[in-house]
Amino acid sequence: MRIDIDKDVCIGAGQCALTAPDVFTQDDDGYSTVLPGREDGGGSPLLREAARACPVSAITVSEAVG
């Protein structure tokens, strides 16, 4: 999996971190970020749900290419 967070769209609502805390966190400014080592989602069953929970659709989850 590939996780992209559009930092220009993210409003720091934190829904992704609440839904999948094993993949997402919030940086010092309150914006969403992927935890180190979890760039592929780490097999989290809640990854896509966390992306859907984003109120501004700043998170995109796609199949990894290559």
From TrEMBL:
Pfam families: Fer4_13. Gene3D superfamilies: 3.30.70.20. Its cofactor is [3Fe-4S] cluster. Ferredoxins are iron-sulfur proteins that transfer electrons in a wide variety of metabolic reactions. The keyword S-adenosyl-L-methionine does not apply. It comes from Streptomyces olindensis. It comes from the Bacteria. The keyword Electron transport applies. Residues 1-29 form the 4Fe-4S ferredoxin-type domain. Keywords: 3Fe-4S, Electron transport, Iron, Iron-sulfur, Metal-binding, Transport. This is Ferredoxin.
